[in-house]
Design brief:
The protein is mainly α and 105 residues long. It is built from three helices and no strands. It starts with a helix and ends with a helix. The model has no long low-confidence stretch (mean pLDDT 82).
Length: 105
């Protein structure tokens, strides 16, 4: 079951990464524009995946801590929100880098 899920996710990721490369103007994957589009798509995909994983773990740990000690909710909530904002800022930085890469050519 686990191998099937990994294969399905790998296939889906490959298909999603290839779409911007095929949409590159005049040329294809073999041209510089196509490779830059592929790099930008890969950058955005990895950042979104890593950010989502990090935010899920942050929220899980915070909610587990609040469930164990409900009185500590205000002390846990503020650092959790700051951590989520910092994680999201890294994803937005990679989005900006991908846009800059896409506009290079």
């Amino acid at each position: 079951m686990k191998k099937t899920m990994i294969l399905a996710l790998t296939t889906l990721a490959t298909m999603l990464l290839a779409v911007p490369a095929f949409a590159a103007p005049e040329g294809g994957i073999g041209t510089a524009e196509g490779l830059v589009a592929l790099a930008a798509a890969f950058c955005m995909g990895m950042a979104a995946f890593g950010g989502a994983l990090s935010q899920a773990r942050t929220a899980s740990a915070a909610l587990e801590g609040i469930a164990r000690n409900p009185q500590a909710a205000p002390k846990v909530q503020t650092p959790m929100i700051i951590a989520l904002a910092m994680t999201e800022s890294l994803v937005l930085f990679s989005f900006v880098i991908a846009i800059i890469l896409s506009n290079k050519f």
